[in-house]
């Protein structure tokens, strides 16, 4: 199935001489060199309503190698797709048109929408077919930084470019000097052609696909103009298939102010942040560097498999650090306005609550080539049934030798325990979190969004191989 869809997408591109490419570049204006972004135009002038047009199509985009990717796909001919920007409480209408050759559904990662709008019902039988349109409609009950992406054949379509940031402002939020979404992604390119390498081997399905080019906002060579004294809010999201990112900015510190589900009650300072696939981190950076100088955002290699395990993991980016993007100071110095983060509504759980909803077991069979939850692969994983609107504990046991980023749709969670230890820093509301090898992670949720929801590993190769299940949040 994967291969046939891949071929279909490739053939469609080869057969269509009029496939647009990044010579008609729009992403330069959506993610300009200035420290800013351009959101999707809101077609509805009314307060409290955001209406946008979104179109997925074949689009040969250039990751910065100089060679456009013939199998590329894009939203509104931009990779990442344009920022969906709105305010907490807004009604959002996305008029989506699928102009690709493959069935599609969209998922609003981290937003608590209704099950009909979450992309999963479409994935399980009612997709947006080629040439068709669908109106996604939801009310924003969560502020912060989110992203949207395709939810069918994800390892191929997200790799091809179908992802975009979502910024949900909180009423009263004061804009920092610079507000910059940075979508982190890697693509695996054939060494000779510099085209997307087909998702080929079973081993890649098990190990996850690590790319050969690291990109920030769709290119490996992004430069952002900066001025000393500015305060910048960096909104980081990991859109990679499998890569975990360990990010720092040369000679600058990060104040972590937010995670998946908005701002933190207690920000903290660090020199680096780790993001698993699907996760978001919001950090404030004071531009304390020297005018006229350039500082690089660097990624340090993150080992996905446990030390001393059976699997020897190869990362084409090598063992050390690699640059991701650059911040280029001009010669000026300004007195920035500073920035105060909005105070969030975050949970206060300090440990598990008595009501245990479910204990998941994640396993891999390297010989059999399977990834399973509770002993089965999707769609055969047994349905989890829990009561809505009750504080509920879940445990996720990873009995494999590889990290798995666990993503739950529809409801948000707080991580209270990782391998018997509370997290060093509270991470607020989460929808995606790392489960280290041979470790059990405990989470708590209010389960205040009833419905039947998917949960899955956000290593996309694992999700496509069936490391996924459904949870019915009902009753009450
Ligand atoms: Cu996994």
Task: Tell me about this structure.
8% of the residues lie in helices and 40% in strands. It is mostly beta strands and 476 residues long. The protein folds into 3 domains: 2-173, Cupredoxins -  blue copper proteins (Immunoglobulin-like, Sandwich); 182-333, Cupredoxins -  blue copper proteins (Immunoglobulin-like, Sandwich), CATH 2.60.40.420; 356-474, Immunoglobulin-like, CATH 2.60.40.420. The strands form 6 sheets. The protein has a 6-stranded mixed beta sheet, with no helix packed on it. The model is unreliable at 1-17 (pLDDT under 50). Bound molecules: copper (II) ion.
Mean pLDDT: 91
- Work out the count of structural domains: 3
Main sheet?
6 strands, mixed
Bound heterogens, unique: copper (II) ion
Number of helices, counting only DSSP H or I runs of 4 residues or more: 6
Helix content: under 10%
Instruction: Tell me what portion of residues adopts beta-strand conformation.
Output: 35-45%
Question: What overall form do the CA principal axes indicate?
Answer: globular
**For the record, what CATH class of the largest domain applies?**
Mainly Beta
CA gyration radius, whole angstroms: 21 Å
Strand order of the largest sheet: 10-9-12-17-14-15
| Stretches with pLDDT under 50, minimum 5 residues | 1-17
Termini gap: 40 Å
The secondary structure category is: mainly beta
β-strand number? 29
Task: Tell me which CATH architecture of the largest domain applies here.
Answer: Sandwich
For this structure, the CATH topology of the largest domain is Immunoglobulin-like
CATH homologous superfamily placement of the largest domain: Cupredoxins -  blue copper proteins
């Amino acid at each position: 199935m994967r291969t046939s869809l891949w071929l279909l997408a490739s053939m469609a591109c080869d057969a269509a001489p009029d496939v647009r490419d990044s010579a008609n570049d729009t992403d330069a204006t959506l993610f300009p060199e200035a420290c800013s972004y351009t959101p999707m135009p809101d077609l509805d002038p009314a307060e409290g309503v955001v209406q946008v047009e979104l179109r997925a199509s074949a689009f040969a985009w250039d990751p910065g190698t100089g060679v456009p990717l013939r199998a590329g796909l894009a939203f509104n001919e931009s990779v990442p797709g344009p920022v969906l920007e709105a305010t907490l409480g807004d009604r959002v209408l996305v008029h989506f048109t699928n102009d690709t050759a493959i069935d599609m559904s969209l998922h609003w990662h981290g937003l608590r929408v209704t099950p009909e709008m979450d992309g999963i019902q479409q994935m399980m039988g009612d997709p947006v077919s080629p040439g068709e349109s669908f109106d996604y409609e939801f009310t924003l009950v969560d502020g912060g930084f989110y992203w949207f992406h395709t939810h069918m054949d994800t390892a191929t379509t997200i790799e091809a470019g179908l992802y975009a940031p979502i910024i949900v402002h909180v009423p009263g939020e004061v804009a920092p000097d610079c507000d910059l979404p940075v979508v982190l992604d890697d693509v695996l390119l054939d060494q000779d052609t510099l085209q997307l390498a087909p998702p080929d081997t079973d081993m890649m399905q098990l190990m996850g696909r690590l790319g050969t080019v690291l990109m920030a906002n769709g290119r490996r060579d992004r430069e952002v103009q900066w001025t000393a004294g500015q305060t910048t809010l960096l909104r980081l999201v990991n859109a990679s298939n499998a890569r975990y990112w360990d990010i720092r900015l040369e000679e600058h510190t990060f104040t972590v102010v937010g995670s998946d589900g908005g701002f933190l009650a207690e920000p903290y300072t660090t020199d680096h942040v780790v993001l698993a696939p699907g996760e978001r981190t919001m950090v404030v950076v004071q531009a304390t560097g020297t005018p006229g100088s350039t500082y690089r955002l660097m990624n340090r290699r993150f080992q996905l498999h446990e030390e001393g395990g059976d699997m020897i993991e190869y990362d084409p980016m090598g063992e050390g650090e690699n640059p991701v993007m650059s911040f280029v100071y001009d010669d000026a110095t300004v007195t920035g306005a500073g920035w105060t983060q909005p105070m969030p509504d975050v949970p206060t759980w300090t440990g598990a609550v008595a009501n245990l909803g479910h204990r998941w077991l994640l396993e891999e069979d390297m010989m059999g080539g399977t990834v399973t939850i509770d002993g089965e692969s999707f769609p055969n994983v047994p349905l989890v049934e829990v009561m809505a609107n009750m504080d509920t504990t879940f445990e996720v046991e990873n009995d494999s030798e590889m990290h798995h980023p666990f993503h739950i749709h529809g409801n948000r969670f707080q991580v209270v325990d990782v391998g018997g230890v509370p997290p060093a820093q509270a991470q607020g509301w989460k929808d995606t979190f790392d489960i280290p090898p041979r470790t059990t992670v405990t989470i708590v949720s209010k389960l205040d969004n009833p419905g039947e929801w998917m949960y899955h590993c956000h290593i996309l190769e694992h999700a496509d191989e069936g490391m996924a299940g459904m949870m019915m949040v009902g009753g009450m």
